[in-house]
Amino acid sequence: MTIPEIYQLFLQYPSVQTDTRKLKEGDIFFALKGEHFNGNEFAKKALEAGAAYAIIDEPAYRENDRMIVVDNVLTCLQQLALHHRRQFRIPILAITGSNGKTTTKELIHEVLATTYRTYTTVGNLNNHIGIPLTLLRIQPDADMAVVEMGANHQKEIAGYCTYTEPTHGLITNLGKAHLEGFGGVEGVRKGKGELFDYLRAHEATAFVMWDDEHLRRMSQGIETVIRYGTKEGDVVGTAVPDPEGQREFLQVQVTRGSAIGLVSTQLVGDYNAPNVLAAVAVGKCFGVPDDAIKKAIESYQPENSRSQLIRRDGMHIILDAYNANPTSMRAAIENFKQLKVDNKYLFLGAMAELGEESIVEHQGIIDLIGSGNWKAVVLVGGDFGKITHPYIQLQNSMEAHEWLKQQDLKDAYLLIKGSRSMQMEKVL
């Protein structure tokens, strides 16, 4: 069966699922394969659970006409997403970067949704499976879409662009993330830069953080460049200083490109200021009124362990534990250092996917910790445990949870951060 023929089935049953545990009646089940599973084995179960059709790529599993055999299920899913995407003549904004992708995506979605019917990546579905699923969720009433793209090796973003075909793109930053897969910092720049390469080749539009000389250089030759930053650009603004070190949430003063003035966010950390400016720049590009931009950003409440402030049992907890790399870890610690309060505790989980740079980067974090004033520092797992240091070293987040339970930390301030694999949210 061809992609156009499968698309006709999709129009009748416009809901796709790859996990039988989440299956709803009328879904089309795509039997994907992984390192430790074979979705073909679950095709019969999916139909019994109410799936309209099952797309498989091993003929031996086909038992009836509702099992459709293709050459490769993943390729079929991606090609179907491309076919669906091409039914729309709407702006599609792709977002990638080392840090802040999801927060930036959420802020931009909140801004655009005040004025347009906007579809966006749900949660963190930003890979070779999640992106096609995001595209297939776009409904006929769409005015625009925002698609997050994550990557840990070169050629990945380029591949995503072939079936997303973005009209606009934004790279949040270029940091020390997934160094092992990208092959170092230069590999990160090249890999993330594949988005700008696509925009350049297709006369598209880039939103560029103009403070970053690498992003400035990488954006050369792109048809339309919209600049934002703290010094110059189409939209200019800065994080408002807090000399007293008592303010918990980020404030941004926009001084050019918009009349919104002071924006009081519910985000923790000055490192989120570029994400706010990106949302302002995108909003202005698409004609969102200033008052709507301001209200959308100020109303946004982070979740899923990203720059969250939680008050519990007398503790003030900054939970930024969805992920971590040397760049984001340093930014979080530096921001926490500026908070002029007593009883500050650090709970830091090890960083993953750093390859041969891992020990050096973990040592760098330990050195940075030494420049602060902490009541206690708890380091959890990974390469922190391979370095001699004077801090509390625990094996995993559950040990850290047990340590926390034994303390009386009323009026204490906690920063909790670590790579996804460390599951540092379990400390709470």
TrEMBL record:
Protein name stated in the entry: UDP-N-acetylmuramoyl-tripeptide--D-alanyl-D-alanine ligase
Annotated ranges, domain Mur ligase N-terminal catalytic: 15-84
Gene from which the chain derives: murF
Localisation per UniProt entry: Cytoplasm
Family to which the UniProt record says this protein belongs: Belongs to the MurCDEF family. MurF subfamily.
Keywords (A to Z) from UniProt: ATP-binding, Cell cycle, Cell division, Cell shape, Cell wall biogenesis/degradation, Cytoplasm, Ligase, Nucleotide-binding, Peptidoglycan synthesis
InterPro entries: Mur-like_cat_sf, Mur_ligase_C, Mur_ligase_C_dom_sf, Mur_ligase_cen, Mur_ligase_N, MurCDEF_CellWall_CoF430Synth, MurE/MurF_N, UDP-N-AcMur_synth
Pfam families tied to this protein: Mur_ligase (PF01225), Mur_ligase_C (PF02875), Mur_ligase_M (PF08245)
Reaction it catalyzes: D-alanyl-D-alanine + UDP-N-acetyl-alpha-D-muramoyl-L-alanyl-gamma-D-glutamyl-meso-2,6-diaminopimelate + ATP = UDP-N-acetyl-alpha-D-muramoyl-L-alanyl-gamma-D-glutamyl-meso-2,6-diaminopimeloyl-D-alanyl-D-alanine + ADP + phosphate + H(+)
Annotated ATP binding sites: 97-103
EC number(s) recorded for this UniProt protein: 6.3.2.10
